[in-house]
Amino acid sequence: MRVLIISGSRNPKGQTARAANALHQGITNKKNECEILFLPHFEVERCRQCEDNGWGICRREGRCTIEDDFTGLVDQIRLADAVVFATPVYIHDLSESLQAFLNRLYRICKHKVGNCGIHGKRVVGICVAGGSGKGAIACAARLEKVLTFCGFETVDIIPISRQNLEVKLMALKEMGKSLF
User: Average pLDDT for residues 107-122, to the nearest whole number?
Assistant: First the structure.
């Protein structure tokens, strides 16, 4: 099984990266492969809302006109057996890089061509809040909503705060062993 972890975190040693790495450790074995991609290292523009109605060929053809790394990332999602989206929580919401990516993904998924290879694919969401940790649940609800709109089959959405991080890291490692 091939699992792709897409992280919206810029910090490869931060709390979100630690959560993604814990899941990665649990997933990786002789029959599973897992790759972590950090979205901020890719060029993914925000949606341009190409036409006056706020849409564009994304709705008509299931693809985006912007020429950046978005299409290649979507191709990698289609090739994976399961996908994990991990994000730090910023003001009770997704990181800007993950939000930009998912906004464009949602738009192409509204068309059957764009949704091909995504609809029904198993997905896990991880939302890691620093500070008070109060935004983790709101972010998790938003992530689940967007992933559902894209057509993914949600396996789990995991809110994490710095207060429960160590316990959740152990749980993520075990989840990776059993879930994938």
Answer: 94
